[in-house]
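FW: tagging you since you asked about this chain on Friday. Here's the raw sequence from the shared folder, copied in full. Didn't touch anything.
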Amino acid sequence: MLEVFKTTSSKVILVVAVLIIAILQFRFLFGEGGYFPHQALLQQIQQQSDINDELKERNRILAAEVYDLKSGVEAIEEHARLDLGLIKPHETFVQMSTISSNYKPIYIDPNAKIDLRTNEVDDLEPEQP
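HL: got it, structure written out here
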């Protein structure tokens, strides 16, 4: 087989063939519409599809809310109460606290002789007249 490539013309043909194959392979992998750009586009399509699915769900929820607002009084009343804080005549507004029952308020004695920044006892006593 080595005897085939002894002539200069056969060596030139071999080099040209290798170059053509390398160029075609490069264009297949990296060229416009090649393998890697195609994979990047498929990934972008998948991401956009996920975003579209989320937006479709949001639109479905908004459409249901619009339908409720157009067809029923309960949804309008709920929005007025929650968003605007409206109450009906002769109703009592009660606001529930979210503080737990284990809450202990902090009491600071204004006459204490402790510096709260350093937790040290203040040695300076106020002068008595």
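FW: DSSP finds three helices and two strands in the chain.
HL: agreed, and The helical segments are 8-30, 35-71, 73-84.
FW: great, closing this out.
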